[in-house]
Design brief:
By secondary structure, this protein is an alpha+beta fold. 26% of the residues lie in helices and 36% in strands. The strands form 2 sheets. It has a 9-stranded antiparallel sheet with strand order 6-2-1-8-9-17-18-7-14, with helices on both faces. A 9-stranded antiparallel sheet has the order 3-5-4-15-16-10-11-13-12.
Length: 331
């Protein structure tokens, strides 16, 4: 079957449509001269699903008239796994507080399924209106999977003169009256330091700007921009060096990844993987956050929270619920 992608890049008003067939690539050099949309699952060294093609500009009116997407995928019953999530957070905190532990941070994801008929195209248009600074996309990868999201988290984008920009996005407040605490500041510093260390291993030059506060709907985050000088390197190669970052995985990378596999109740699938528009002249990759999987009978929302030794389990649970409202509030 033919697949489609609708996407709007941050701070742009135009919407692009790409049609074709997804192919998987494990060789990032094969993508260095291609144009198209990429998406990957969460994990270490994951292959990219790539839909090659030139983006065609489409109007909102055209999208509103498009035939509804079909999928045969059946979601699970609508459950909120609060007891399990709180237990996983408490176990992680206890492990981090033990002497000799190597685990410093782990990001634990949560899901929420809602039985409701969803017009995917209408939801996409609502997301583009409400979150103009996000990378907003919708794709039907195959007959079983429709994914949609409005990601605030840049992974990499090309700059001039063989430079790239990435960000360290970590630390979240959910109410205007809240102030930043040591927990959020330390979480932000952990992610920034990790990214710098990874880049220095590749002998890349890095400059930083931040941390600064940014807004994403009703949420506030701490963000540091990092500018990378990288000669003779393509954006996919650099992305796979950084991904998954501590902002969606943890520190150290392998220990956090193993803990996630052991403790999370549901598979992340494409949540927190890579999404983006790849072009030789200008590419932009984001982390697939504030996203959902749409099925024939409903929608499954995904969100995560960064856990450190100073975390409060109840607050971390609430943070995931607030992040899910990015999409849930528009249903």
């Amino acid at each position: 079957m033919d697949s489609i992608v609708l996407l709007k890049t941050p701070k742009k008003d135009t919407i692009q449509l790409i049609k074709g067939n997804f192919k998987t690539y494990s060789d990032n050099l094969a993508l260095s001269t291609k144009k198209g949309f990429c998406i990957s699952r969460f994990g270490l060294n994951q292959a990219l699903y790539f839909l090659e093609g030139e983006g065609k500009l489409v109007t909102r009116e055209t999208i509103e008239k498009m035939a509804p997407l079909k999928t045969s995928y059946q979601i699970k019953s609508p459950e909120i796994y609060k007891t399990h999530y709180i237990m996983a957070v408490e176990t992680a905190i206890k492990q981090m507080q033990e002497n000799g532990t190597s685990l410093k941070k782990v990001v634990l994801a949560n899901t929420k399924s809602i039985i409701k008929q969803i017009n995917a195209f209408s939801l996409f248009l609502k997301l583009t209106e409400k979150y103009p600074d996000a990378f907003v996309y919708l794709t039907q990868i195959d007959e079983n999977q429709i994914w949609i999201g409005a990601s605030p988290e840049l992974l990499l984008e090309t700059e001039e003169d063989q430079k790239y920009r990435t960000v360290s996005l970590a630390g979240t407040l959910t109410h205007a009256s809240q102030t930043w605490t040591q927990k959020e500041q330390e979480e932000q510093a952990m992610v920034t330091d990790y990214i710098i260390q990874q880049l220095e291993k590749g002998q890349y030059q890095v400059q930083t700007d931040g941390p600064n506060e940014i807004e994403n709907g009703h949420l506030r985050h701490l963000q540091t921009s990092l500018y990378i000088k990288a000669k003779d390197t393509n954006i996919i190669e650099l992305a796979q060096l950084l991904h998954p970052t501590p902002a969606i995985n943890g520190i150290p990378k392998q220990e956090a990844f193993d803990y996630i596999g052991e403790m999370e109740k549901d598979k992340r699938e494409f949540y927190s993987g890579i999404i983006g528009l790849v072009q030789p002249e200008k590419s932009i990759l984001h982390v697939n956050l504030r996203c959902a999987r749409i099925a024939q009978n409903g929608i499954t929302l995904f969100a995560g929270a960064g856990i450190t030794s100073k975390s409060n389990p109840e607050k971390e649970w609430t943070e995931t619920q607030n992040k899910m409202k990015i999409i849930e509030s528009l249903l």
